[in-house]
């Protein structure tokens, strides 16, 4: 993968939760993942790692729902992680640790019962090597939940979808009053799209990610295509 030069995630952090709240497809991913975690029946004192955890939309909710578990929130962007820390502080959580680092760095991480990586792997410089590393730090019988954007974002398709979706959910006035934030969102999505096209970000098919997971040492327990066909969702177990 080529090097990434802009500070995309720091900039995106200003509108990330606006996107998360207003995008029904993102909300659907949250629902799917929480249903999955419930069905997996993770151990009582499980160690859980969220890689590329952003503003904490998954890690913080897990920490809230599974108070006996220890959550590690790994995120390299200082603005993204700051937002997550503020949310955790307001919720009074003490079972979540924040690590401000990229996964590629040689940081001490090991023994996880559950690892999540949501819409993050495709941005990593060496995603297939990262999958091997994720497998290495997963406990025996440990689970890995991954949801990853694999297809190049069609900006017009997404803008129209988000506009219509928002009018349906929030009404025309609320949608129009958020125009400025929507432009910022579209601007950041354009950078992602360009990074995908330039080969900075990994563009993959469902079957390519599936074989990469198997090659990295995972059994696939469940797989599906989500996020309007753009993302691949896998629930895996360490072989
Ligand atoms: C689209 S956001 C996803 C955030 C969160 N997982 C979610 O779904 O809401 C991608 C995140 O991956 C992080 N990221 C980028 N490269 C990374 C790396 N090498 N290691 C860990 N995280 C990384 C970015 O900083 C960004 O916060």
Question: Secondary-structure blueprint of this entry?
Answer:
Layout lengths: L7 H15 L1 H17 L6 E5 L7 H7 L4 E5 L3 H13 L5 E4 L12 E7 L8 H10 L1 E12 L5 H16 L1 H6 L1 H19 L8 H10 L2 E9 L4 E8 L1
Bound molecules: S-adenosylmethionine.
S-adenosylmethionine binds next to loops.
CATH H-level superfamily: Vaccinia Virus protein VP39
Number of strands: 7
> In percent, how much strand structure appears in the residues?
15-25%
Provide mean pLDDT, rounded. Answer: 93
Number of helices: 9
Strand order of the largest sheet: 3-2-1-4-5-7-6
Instruction: From the alpha carbons, calculate the radius of gyration and give it in angstroms.
Output: 17 Å
Tell me which CATH architecture applies here.
3-Layer(aba) Sandwich
Secondary-structure-derived class: alpha/beta
Count of spatially separate domains: 1
Summarize the structure in words.
The chain is of the alpha/beta class. The chain has a single domain (8-238), classed as 3-Layer(aba) Sandwich (Rossmann fold). The chain contains nine helices and seven strands. The protein has helices spanning 8-22, 24-40, 59-65, 78-90, 127-136, 155-170, 172-177, 179-197, 206-215, and strands at 47-51, 70-74, 96-99, 112-118, 138-149, 218-226, 231-238. It has a seven-stranded mixed sheet with strand order 3-2-1-4-5-7-6, sandwiched between helices. The longest helix is centred in the C-terminal third of the chain and has 19 residues, at 179-197. The chain is globular and about 50 Å long. The model is unreliable at 1-5 (pLDDT under 50). The structure holds S-adenosylmethionine (SAM).
């Amino acid at each position: 993968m080529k090097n990434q030069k802009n500070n995309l995630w720091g900039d995106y952090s200003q509108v990330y939760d606006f996107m998360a709240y207003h995008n029904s497809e993102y909300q659907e991913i949250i629902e799917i993942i929480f249903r999955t975690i419930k069905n997996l029946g993770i151990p009582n004192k499980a160690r859980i790692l969220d890689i590329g955890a952003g503003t904490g939309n998954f890690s913080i909710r897990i920490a809230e729902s599974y108070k006996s578990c220890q959550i590690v929130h790994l995120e390299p962007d200082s603005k993204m992680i700051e937002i997550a820390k503020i949310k955790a502080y307001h919720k009074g959580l003490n079972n979540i640790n924040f690590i401000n680092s990229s996964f590629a760095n040689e940081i001490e991480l090991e023994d996880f019962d559950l690892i999540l990586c949501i819409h993050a792997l495709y941005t990593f410089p060496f995603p297939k090597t990262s999958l091997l590393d994720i497998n290495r730090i997963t406990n025996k019988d440990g689970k890995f939940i991954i949801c990853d954007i694999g297809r190049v974002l069609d900006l017009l398709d997404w803008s129209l979808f988000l506009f219509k979706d928002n009018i349906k959910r929030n009404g025309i006035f609320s949608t129009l009053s958020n125009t400025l934030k929507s432009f910022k969102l579209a601007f950041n999505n354009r950078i992602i799209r360009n990074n995908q096209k330039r080969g900075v970000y990994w563009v993959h098919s469902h079957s390519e990610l599936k074989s990469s997971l198997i090659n990295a040492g995972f059994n696939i327990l469940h797989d599906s295509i989500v996020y309007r066909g753009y993302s691949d969702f896998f629930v895996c177990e360490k072989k």
